[in-house]
Design a protein that fits this description.
Blueprint: E1 2-10, H1 13-44, H2 50-54, H3 56-63, H4 75-93, E2 109-113, E3 118-119, E4 123-125, E5 132-135, E6 143-151, E7 157-164, E8 176-177, E9 181-186, E10 190-194, E11 199-201, H5 204-222, H6 228-262, E12 265-269, H7 271-277, H8 283-289, H9 291-304, E13 308-312, E14 338-340, E15 347-349, H10 350-368, E16 373-374
Parallel strand pairs: 8-16, 9-12, 12-13
Antiparallel strand pairs: 1-5, 1-7, 2-6, 3-4, 4-5, 6-7, 9-10, 10-11, 14-15
The protein binds zinc ion.
Domain Transposase putative helix-turn-helix: 1-44
Domain Probable transposase IS891/IS1136/IS1341: 178-279
Keywords: DNA recombination, DNA-binding, Metal-binding, Transposition, Zinc
């Protein structure tokens, strides 16, 4: 199974200089490939194939005196950048991303390495460089497939490592228990509500980090363009951004791991439906809640455990339907947090009721797909 982790690295001054030079070369290849592609299209109406026609030019350029310095860098890193550009073009034509643009020294930097790469107890190794000191906070056992070296806007360096742990993915469960199925309703005030009524709010440290971010943002905007202070403020701002992103990501990992541990199957609405239903004016809270990221984490963690995750993509009035009797309200205001079913008298928390309906829909889908969803033999006084 493929595993991924990002480690902070601490290059020496010489390594730092080399990394920046290599990133420069990577950028150069990207920008040249993009230029050629655009230029030929504009002047001759020819759409060059990036992989078959442009990528081989790197090897040719290295033989020329002008570009001889490209030989100093990991050739895989240079080639990969053209492959990435090709992906960028595809994403653009499939409507998933904007048109690829030229890269500058000011943006985030990265280079991809996939041959002769390894991870040691306190270092990472890539071609053309001595081992780089690293803080390896997770065990890397198995075959390292690739290492991507990165610099972020705060001026910190990282190695994103991808490795094959040699373990087979778990077989999907052959049968599950009904009481092990959980529905999830994601929200704005609370990150999510489970069908059992448990709520998960956005943590306080995230709010604190966001406040600090706003302060850094103001400080940055007060500095003069091109000044030393501005550069300093820019780094502080980038660091504050990173703290928010880290706090958010830590929390999402924690929440998703707990959900995965506690259930055999999870059901949620698809991101498409979620975005359709939730209030778009609250964009900041929405960004914070980071629903898409949460669903993505749940999906891969459930698969890893051989468990089931259903994303319900058909529109279904989960908030307005009574989860006890199926009665459907005509209308339910966004502001109404609790309601009582006029048909059966059940009192509902808005989100928990929605989660219960999503759970029921999840169970229906699992059964329809032929998976036995068993009822447990209950020994409660109610059971006969
Ligand atoms: Zn009812």
């Amino acid at each position: 199974m493929l595993r991924a982790a990002k480690f902070r690295i601490y290059p020496t001054a010489a390594q730092e200089a080399f990394l920046w030079a290599q990133w420069g070369a990577v950028r150069k290849c990207w920008n040249m490939a993009l230029f050629l592609k655009k230029h030929y299209y504009r002047t001759r109406g020819v759409s060059l194939d990036l992989i078959h026609e442009i990528k081989p030019l790197i090897a040719r350029a290295k033989k020329s005196r002008k570009y001889a310095r490209l030989r100093e860098y990991d050739s895989m890193a240079l080639q990969e950048t053209v492959r990435n550009l090709n992906k960028g073009y595809r994403a653009f034509f499939e409507g998933r991303a904007g048109f690829p643009h030229y890269k500058s020294r000011r943006g985030p930097q990265s280079s991809y390495h996939c041959t002769n790469v390894s991870v040691g107890p306190n270092y990472v190794r890539v071609p053309k460089m001595e081992p780089i000191k690293a803080r390896i906070h997770r065990e890397v056992v198995g075959k390292v497939k690739s290492i991507t070296l990165e610099a972020d806007a705060a001026g910190d360096y990282y190695a994103a490592v991808l490795w094959e742990d040699g373990l087979a993915e778990k077989e999907p469960l052959k049968e599950i228990y009904e009481d092990q199925v959980t529905g999830i309703d994601v929200g704005i005030t609370d990150l999510l509500t489970e069908s059992n009524g448990r709520k998960e709010s956005n943590p306080r440290h995230l709010k604190r980090a966001r406040k600090a971010l706003r302060r850094r943002c103001r400080q940055f905007s007060r500095t003069k363009k091109g000044s030393r202070r501005r550069e300093k403020a820019r780094r502080r701002l980038a660091r504050a951004h990173k703290r928010v992103a880290n706090a958010r990501s830590d929390n999402l990992h924690k929440v998703s791991s707990r959900l995965v541990n506690e259930s055999q199957a999870l059901a949620a609405e698809s991101l498409r439906i979620i975005n359709m239903l939730k209030n778009h004016h609250l964009s900041e809270s929405i960004a914070d809640a980071a629903w898409g990221e949460l669903l993505r984490m749940i999906a891969y963690k459930m698969k890893r455990e051989g468990k089931y995750f259903m994303q319900i993509d058909t529109f279904y009035p989960s908030s307005k339907t009574c989860s006890c009797c199926g009665f459907k309200l005509e209308k339910l205001d966004l502001a109404t947090r609790e309601w009582t079913c006029p048909h059966c008298g059940a009192h509902h928390d808005r989100n928990a009721n929605a989660a219960a309906n999503i759970r029921a829909e999840g169970i229906r889908i699992l059964r329809a797909e032929g998976l036995p969803v068993l009822r447990r033999e209950m020994s409660s006084p109610n059971a006969r």
